[in-house]
Amino acid sequence: MRDGLRRRLDALFARLRRIERRELSSLRRWLEQTSNLVRLSALLLVPLLVGAVIYVSDTTPLLSFLLYPPLASGTYTLFADPGGTYSSPVKFVAGLTLGALCGWFALELAARFLYHVPPDQLSIHAGSATLAIFFTAIVTWGFDMEEPAAFSTALLVLATDASKPAYVVTVAFSSTVVALAFVVWRNEFYEERARYLYRATSADDHVLVPMLGETAQVTAVFAARLAAAHEAGKVVLLHLVDRADVDAAEAALADEGEPLERDGGPTARRSAAEEQVAAGAVAELEAHRDRIETTVGVPCEVVVATDGADSAGAVLDVAAAANCDLVVTPYQQQRGGLSPFVADLFRSEFDVVAFRSVTGETRWRRVLVPVRRAGSVAHAMLDYAERLAGGVGTVSVATCIDTERERRRAERVLSDLVETVGARVETRVSRSTIEEFIARNGGHYDLVILGASTDRSAASRFVSPPTFERIEETATDVAIVHQG
Predict the structure, then answer these.
(1) How far apart are CA 340 and CA 334, in angstroms?
(2) CA 438, CA 63: separation in Å to the nearest integer?
(3) CA-based nearest residue to 385, from 373, 299, 377
(4) Cβ-based burial of 189 (10 A; exposed 0-12, middle 13-18, buried ≥19)
(5) Angle, nearest 10°, between helix axes 150-159 and 126-142?
(6) What is the pTM of this model?
(7) Mean pLDDT score of the chain
(8) Cα separation of 220 and 328, whole Å?
């Protein structure tokens, strides 16, 4: 009974772990949307920062509660739009402080020359409020320190019972604390979010290449250039021994009179045939390895494995054994669609790139990356493009829209994407279908990088086939990216 209970508990815990992994994966994909990351940061950090400032300020009896509304408003403006017009920490501090100074100056001026009373006896009047807003607009505009919350500090200084100089100093101090926290968050997390959220920017440096078909050599060079971007990069060249080749070698040995002996295992002739085929494969792989190491300068290893009924399974087993995190395979078609081999790789947990070589070139300096949305796959494609373009190449990130009303949102998506890229990047928004856009512009690039659409449902792919299946006539090299 205890064993049965233990098995049920183990099964329950295993199921809970699977649910936890799925939830964590879903959360990660949600955070990969920059807009979601910004919203979550604003939701968590703004209340904490304002609360911390209020907690510290409670020790100062001279501080007015009227400081907090403009501080909270300005803090949210900073974190909610870190790349926007009002995201400058200098403008934030200077704007709030200048607003408070202008309100104080307007109060003094109105008290002395309009109402002829001491400033500490003057309550809020239309004249002082008008002057406060007017001076704030002039000063912030003149110093290029426009900050919406500055108008709040300008008005609220008129209403506070606290010392006006103390209010101004507290505004400057509190806004400086918030600005410093924002700078740390933006520099150390937001602008480095690719390093924390997108696996491809820190992984995919051990690359396995199944040497299949006529474009295997070019595909291997492509993989080597991806791996060379990281110091720990290496390429593993894999040859799958076809049983038909072994059968042919065995038949040839039989014709030569090779003896047939059994020693509790395979026949001697069969073993000799396998060794002969493997030796030939190793010699061919070593020639490829020497060319790649000379041309690209990245370390290479060679592996020979026996092909079976499941070629993709054999490749994935070798990838796991060789500690590879990316598989780059030549693109293969069958009956107008993906070959079963590539389709099986795309269903795996490994990152996979299917490379379709059209030109035979081995340098890809001008790279086009069409994207649908800002997510992990888009960032992976951009990372690969940056690796290939290097410091002298260019990367173009494009998206297609149906109506002009979608342009602003599309431009924002592209802006969020390219913020994480160090290469020279241009963004393009086109009112056309993706097939038309690539047909018109693909010839100006060395490579087009597309997503494999494996994150879409089968029904969605049936209604709208993946882009790479709709651009068969493109005379440009194409790389199709799948993230496991």
Answers:
(1) 8
(2) 61
(3) 377
(4) middle
(5) 150
(6) 0.67
(7) 77
(8) 8
For residue 320, how many C-alpha atoms fall within 13 Å in the half-sphere facing its CB?
A: 9
Q: Which amino acid is at 350?
A: F
Question: Are residues 288 and 211 in contact, defined by beta-carbon separation less than 8 angstroms?
Answer: yes
Separation CA 136–CA 196 (nearest Å): 41
Please, what sign has the CA dihedral across residues 119, 120, 125, 130? positive
End-to-end CA distance of the chain: 40
Q: Are the C-beta atoms of 152 and 70 separated by less than 8 Å?
A: yes
Between CA 228 and CA 235 the distance in angstroms is: 9
Measure the CA–CA gap between 183 and 175, rounded to whole angstroms. Answer: 12
Calculate what percentage of the chain has a pLDDT beyond 70: 71
27-47 as b/e, with b when 16 or more CB fall inside 10 Å? eeeebbbbeebbeebbeebbe
**Could you read off the pLDDT of 14-62 as tens digits, one per residue?**
555 655 555 666 666 666 666 777 788 888 888 888 888 777 766 655 5
Q: Give the orientation angle of helix 2-31 with respect to helix 34-57, to 10 degrees.
A: 90
Paired tokens of 2 = 């205890």
Give a three-class secondary structure readout of 44-90: HHHHHHHHHHHHHHCCCCCCCHHHHHHHHHHHHHHHHCCCCCCCCHH
pLDDT tens-place string over residues 186-237 = 888 777 766 666 554 445 578 899 888 888 899 999 999 988 877 778 888 8
Is the pLDDT higher at 352 or at 465?
A: 352
Of the candidates 314, 379, 331, the one whose C-alpha atom is nearest the C-alpha of residue 219 is 331
CATH number (3.40.50.2000, 3.40.50.300, 3.40.50.620, 3.40.50.740) of 197-350 reads 3.40.50.620
Q: How far is CA 180 from CA 49, 152, 457, in A?
A: 11, 21, 44
* Domain spanning 358-484, CATH architecture: 3-Layer(aba) Sandwich (3.40)
Confidence band of 368 (pLDDT split at 50, 70, 90): very high
